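Hey, quick one: can you model this chain's 3D structure?
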Amino acid sequence: MNNVFNSSLPIAIGSDHAGFEYKEAVKKWLADQGFQVKDFGTHSAQSVDYPDFAHPVASSVENNETSFGILFCGSANGVAITANKHAGVRAALCWENDVAVLVRKHNNANIICVPARFVALSLALEMIGQFMATPFEGGRHADRVNKIACSSSNQ
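Sure thing. Here's the predicted structure for all 155 residues.
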């Protein structure tokens, strides 16, 4: 599989209870392809709070400790909202391949958020593969991405 992210760094992965089974399957799928994966939990299907796992994944991406992140929860909205609180993180909720490609091409997304209750595992794997293989287009999109952060330098 082609990977446009820094392949010398591990891939961050995390989930709440609703995404636990997908996280485990994706972790194995990535490892089978030779990728290093840093698992931030959860480590069972017991009910937990998604921010407890989304924040560490986002922090690792924000601090360049991991190449990019993968987050799962029931709707993926909670983990996306949480991850996007971190500077430099662009977490994108994806539910089909075209979305996974566009969030990379146009938004330079660095965390993919997958709704485990609404997409099949096979589609989740396809989306993650597309996300990993799609480069950021830059150009006019870079100008837009550079306006995302809340700071005095871009107001």
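One thing worth noting: The radius of gyration is 14 Å.
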